[in-house]
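User: Quick sanity check before I run a bigger batch. Here is a single chain. Can you write out its predicted 3D structure?
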Amino acid sequence: MGELFRSEEMTLAQLFLQSEAAYCCVSELGEIGMVQFRDLNPDVNVFQRKFVNEVRRCEEMDRKLRFVEKEIKKANIPILDTGENPEVPFPRDMIDLEATFEKLENELKEINTNQEALKKNFLELTELKHILHRTQQFFNEMEDPSLLEESSILLDPNEPTRVAPLRLGFVAGVIGRERIPTFERMLWRVCRGNVFLRQADIEDPLEDPSSGDQVHKSVFIIFFQGDQLKNRVKKICEGFRATLYPCPETPQERKEMLAGVNARIDDLQMVLNQTEDHRQRVLQAAAKTVRVWFIKVRKMKAIYHTLNLCNIDVTQKCLIAEVWCPVSDMDSIQFALRRGTEKSGSTVPSILNRMQSTQTPPTYNKTNKFTSGFQNIVDAYGIGSYREINPAPYTIITFPFLFAVMFGDLGHGTLMTCAALYLVLRESRLIAQKNDNEIFSMVFAGRYIILLMGIFSMYTGVIYNDCFSKSLNVFGSGWSVRPMFKGGNWTTETLESNTVLQLDPAVEGVFGGPYPFGIDPIWSISTNKLTFLNSFKMKMSVILGVIHMLFGVTLSLFNHLYFRKPLNVYLGFIPEIVFMASLFGYLAILIFYKWVAYDARTSRDAPSLLIAFINMFLFSYNDPTAKPLYRGQMGLQILLVLLALACVPVMLIVKTLVLRRQHLWQKHLGTQNFGGIRVGNGPTEDEAGIIQHDQLAQQSEDEPESSLLLPAFKAREEEEFIFADVAVHQAIHTIEYCLGCISNTASYLRLWALSLAHAQLSEVLWSMVMRIGLSSRSFGGFVLLAIVFYFFAVLTVAILLVMEGLSAFLHALRLHWVEFQNKFYAGQGFKFLPFTFESILDGRFDE
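Assistant: Done. Predicted structure follows.
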């Protein structure tokens, strides 16, 4: 149970693996995911390590599989995912896998090459078919087709007489439809209007064989005279990437060519269909096993990459590795090594040897699907120092509760709870769907956080008696106006002539007592509702903030005790807790005392807590308007302020001087032994060891990794003691803590501000939207209500649930990171990153 509140106890271990068993042993360690390998060859180039060739072969196989996967996705064939966890193939199986992937890649490349060539030929024949067809139409549209087939007559519009007939040449081709206007202008300008262009669009889009995209093209025919214009026209066509095709001059030749082209197109279509069927069969067969192949290859690559981190002894028969691992999982690691040795057929067992080290171990917090979300919230601030108090277990309760204080609404909390319950109850099916949407994945990962936030919001909504900005009258109101009529104070005329009346709780019978649970529903119709809720929620925020911060300071005590820092306990924790409790803890007690000590009859004479708290710091007790809350208030408050002020020099000066004294005592008054006899007035060897341990622990609270080591690890050598650095560090810490107590307490007022903002925004949405639909009682009003309710529901979800929920989430996050965790959590460690195949087995094989 203790491991839940601290990170796991870690140890540095040395692995001795036989060369023939190393591969299988690392494979088994990757399956259990409990060790983090250290690089024992940091100065060795990546390309000079022993297993670099194997890594390259795995990368080449991975490249071929990515090519196959790309072809499968291009063909819209679903990749089969049965959730199978294939075993790591043996090194001798790599040759078979390479041969299989090589054969598959070559076959697909050959199919693609042949298919592209066939499609290119098919495209050319299709374009030629359209050219022959459209060209015949162009010639048929002329007045004298026979004349156009042999020659053309060029007429000058300025000459009234016909000149001698001239023979014209022509070219025909296909061009992209979007280039036609520019193509036509270029022809006109370059040829100076001495060409004649006819074009027609091809109705059906054509497939580009290289990219597979559908393109729209047009057929054109250009008439010109002379070789010079012919060369110009061809160069322009080449520049615009137009494709020219030979076109016979006589109708009979065009007709015969068109028949031949149609026959070749039919044959090509048959061959293309057979090629596509063969390609589909190959890809469908590959889609059934490509996921398993990916996992196998990437497991092999990960194993060889890990083996490159190991050292090889001089005999080349043993690999030496160093790993970080949890102490509680040592037995599981031993069993995994034994299984790997047996699987490899080796007769020499692998050895796991625990080592002593002065290095700071990584931080490892075991989580499950429920606690992982809250642990991620803590880790986003900073990875905890080794064996430091873990805030995540407390965050499970405090985070959704502080969120709910700002988001308290029974209706909105119910909607949030239902949405989270859907994600929780269908989590297995949703995980199997492998949704790649980033926003959905983020929400799904925090489903248990959202569930608790919704449940706590329902609770605080009941406390606030707020459900979609309306109060629930469950137990009846504690207020009554009937005694007022009996007393004769109010009459019917009074009620009719006044829109606002004030109830006096001091009159007997008007106030029947406190509401059984939450806030009385009568406040929802009162004009001073906001004034009442302001006072209530502001004081509630201060109380919750002080309790939360005092709890954070208390947790620091457990850190000091665990890491054996008595100086931090006496000169750190005690002054800090006394300083905060004397000032802000006393303020919280005053709030409770005022609630209990004053009733409806005496509340008018109750002094202001704000004025009393300010006078407490100013030592001002002569103001006749500021009455004391209780007898002996002045003496107690003066004592508390003096006590808080006395804590400041203790943290600022005393601790620094004690550290300096310990350093000098150890340095100048050490022991000397002559013939086994101790000489000197300094501490004994045991006492000196204790002092050295305490001094190392006290060197820096902001660098806990220097002392956050278990007794199993040797203490690092003492660093040079610089008094100025220690004094400045301690001064910064003291000033930050004292000022932080004030600013952090004020920061908790965001609970009050956001709670009121959420309630007011909900009330405005109801009054401005929903009241429109409820204004009519006819049948048309029912239709109007249905339409208005749709907009009300959309705005409620978009604004009050999503936007306001995100705002309250971020503010609760800030309260935990800054106001709570800075009291005890350094967060300067580094995360335990075990060697594991889990990411591959989760199906992320395409990353």
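Residues 251-307 form the longest helix (57 residues).

User: Great, the batch can go ahead then.
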